[in-house]
Design goal:
Protein name: HTH-type transcriptional regulatory protein GabR
Keywords: DNA-binding, Pyridoxal phosphate, Transcription, Transcription regulation
Oligomer: single chain
Distance between the termini: 101 Å
Radius of gyration: 31 Å
GO molecular function, one term: pyridoxal phosphate binding
Family: In the C-terminal section; belongs to the class-I pyridoxal-phosphate-dependent aminotransferase family.
Number of helices: 17
Organism: Mixta intestinalis
Number of domains: 3
Low-confidence stretches: 94-98, 494-499
């Protein structure tokens, strides 16, 4: 006997003639159940009968029935047949008698106060490659084939423990290679057990902040300073004070400021101004940290690239067992997408922060870490840095020459040490560097406004110009375009003389 359910399904099936047959049938039955045409407890037609009526193979119908049963639309009763599930409409909250209500976007789209504050202060560039973008190395000149050779070796010798979550803060071989490199190149005092591998500096800063600060604690940062630190502190509800920077680095120790839990500094090449923290300031900062029981967080982001004189030793290595957490990254020496950084933790913190890191972030990339360990141990890392140091020195000098010839010496930033991956183009007082930077960005010149790195009202206008990744043949035409924009907004202003 022909059932009513066959007619209902056949009608729904005939309403659409596009798509694969099994999807058309699935959609037809779903619609019939949800709009009430096939009511709860109604018996479904036998698969053979439905297949014959619709001109389909029985396997197609069985496939659809299996999917509908798995999703709870229909159920099978032993020796009785297949039925629309009694509670299907209640379970799906899709009963035709119920009036659908529009979701209030304000209820679901609202963010936390910290999330809104972060959005209001977001500073990451939407473009990560282009002329003058600060902080970007020459990723084209990296020896990718050599690293790939080491990575392929790791994959050929893949071990199960290298293909799961990391629980010990990074591959032992990479931590050992890093410890040797940091001792010789940066004067860092550490053992491999003190090193924790992270996914870049941001994760390291977040880990340290979450692990060592309570909401409402205080931190000191540099003024001007790196925007990423400020946003991490905001998201962790940590208050912060910005201490001024001069030619000797951070001016710390002002008695009216609350005692900090963390002190964030870039002593070897201040970001963004470029000054180097003097020995006396370093010792003062270490003494202050001991007195206030604070931790100094040393961000050594691009110290390998110093183009004159001897490398500036790390603050961490100045005192044995000093209150310093040292953070570094491969983003500047190799390439950002590698997403590998590291923290050298004081011995009392190492075990705890590694465990917290494992709970929060579930580290991995162990095969790439093994390849990078070989890259370092066999001398390729040091050789690449030497090569890039020479290349970047030429490009920096070329940019300095262009500034002097196109704009004049007054436009060279006050603290532009011969180091790093960017320099400051100083602008006359009163210049709207944010508007100028936006205009340049619209022209494909990805400069950043210096004033955005300040918190207080006393801001120095300028532009950050990244030079490391710009081919010398492209540098001059790009700078000529930028110089024209700068002249257009500063023609009636005078750049103050440097002191």
């Amino acid at each position: 006997m022909r059932s009513l359910a066959v007619d209902v399904i056949k009608h729904a099936f005939s309403q659409r003639d596009e798509g694969k047959l099994h999807k058309r049938l699935y959609s037809a039955i779903c619609r019939s159940i949800l709009d009430g045409s096939l009511r709860p407890a109604v018996r479904m037609p036998p698969s053979r009968d439905l297949a014959e009526e619709l001109g389909l193979s029985r396997n197609t119908v069985l496939r659809v029935y299996e999917q509908l049963q798995a999703e709870g639309y229909i159920s099978t009763r032993t020796n009785s047949g297949t039925f629309v599930t009694d509670s299907v409409l209640d379970n799906l909250d899709a009963s035709p008698e119920k009036q659908a209500t529009r979701v209030n976007e304000e209820d679901y789209g609202s963010l936390s106060a910290r999330g809104l504050e972060l959005l209001g202060n977001a500073s990451a560039s939407p473009k990560q490659w282009g002329p003058f973008l600060p902080g970007v190395p020459d990723v084209v000149s990296f020896p990718h084939r050599i690293l790939k050779k080491f990575y392929d070796r790791q994959t050929r010798q893949a071990r199960p423990e290298h293909l799961t979550y990391d629980t010990v803060g990074g591959a032992a071989r990479l931590k050992s290679a890093l410890a040797d490199y940091l001792r010789s190149a940066r004067g860092v005092r550490c053992s491999p057990d003190q090193i924790l591998i992270t996914e870049g500096i941001h994760q390291a800063l977040d880990l340290v902040t979450r692990s060592l600060c309570n909401p409402g604690d205080n931190a000191w940062i540099e003024e001007p300073g790196y925007w990423g630190i400020k946003n991490i502190l905001r998201m962790n509800a940590v208050n912060f004070s910005a201490l001024p920077v001069d030619e000797q680095g951070m001016v710390a120790g002002e008695p009216h400021r609350p005692a900090p839990r963390l002190i964030f500094v870039t002593p070897s090449h201040q970001y963004p101004l470029g000054s180097v923290m003097s020995l006396s300031r370093r010792k003062t900062l270490l003494a202050l940290a001991r007195e206030t029981r604070s931790w100094i967080v040393e961000d050594d982001y691009d110290s390998e690239f110093r183009f004159a004189g001897q490398p500036i030793p790390s603050l961490q290595g100045l005192e044995e067992h000093g209150p310093v957490i040292y953070i570094g990254t491969f983003s500047k020496t190799l390439y950002p997408a590698l997403r590998l950084g590291y923290v050298v933790l004081p011995a009392p913190l190492a075990a705890s922060l590694k465990k917290i890191h494992n709970e929060l972030y579930r580290g991995g990339h162990l095969q790439m870490q093994g390849a990078l360990a070989d890259f370092i141990s066999e001398g390729y890392y040091a050789a690449h840095i030497r090569k890039m140091r020479q290349l970047y020195a030429r490009r920096r000098q070329a940019l300095v020459t262009l500034i002097l010839t196109r704009l004049g010496s007054d436009y060279l930033g006050q603290y532009n040490s011969n180091a790093g991956l960017h320099l400051i183009l100083q602008l006359p007082d009163g210049t709207d560097d944010v508007a100028l930077a936006q205009h340049a960005n619209n022209e494909g010149l990805l400069v950043r406004p210096l004033s955005r790195y300040y918190i207080g009202e006393d801001k120095t206008p300028g532009l950050l110009l990244g030079f490391a990744h710009i081919d010398e043949r492209e540098l001059e035409p790009c700078f000529n375009r930028l110089a024209a924009l700068v002249k257009a907004v500063t023609v009636d202003k005078t750049v103050p003389e440097q002191q």
